[in-house]
Task: inverse folding
C-alpha cells in the first residue's frame, strides 16, 4: 500500500502543473467522475480524497484476504 501512495505523491510532485491544468480544463468542464469527486473544487484536494479512498479500500481488501 505504501508503494501505491508513494507513487501518487511522486507523480503529483513531478507533474503537478500538467495535472492541475488537466483538472481545470477537463474534469471541471465534463461530467465523467463521481459526485464526490465533482464536489471537490481543486486538484490537490481531489488527490487527497483519492489517496484516502485508496488507503481505505486497500485496508479493507487486506482484512478480507487475511481472514
Result:
Amino acid at each position: 500500500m505504501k508503494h501505491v501512495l508513494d507513487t501518487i505523491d511522486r507523480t503529483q510532485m513531478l507533474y503537478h502543473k500538467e495535472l492541475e491544468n488537466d483538472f481545470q480544463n477537463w474534469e471541471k468542464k465534463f461530467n465523467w467522475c463521481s459526485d464526490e469527486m465533482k464536489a471537490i473544487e481543486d486538484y490537490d484536494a481531489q488527490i487527497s480524497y483519492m489517496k484516502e479512498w485508496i488507503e481505505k479500500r486497500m485496508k479493507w481488501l487486506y482484512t478480507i484476504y487475511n481472514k
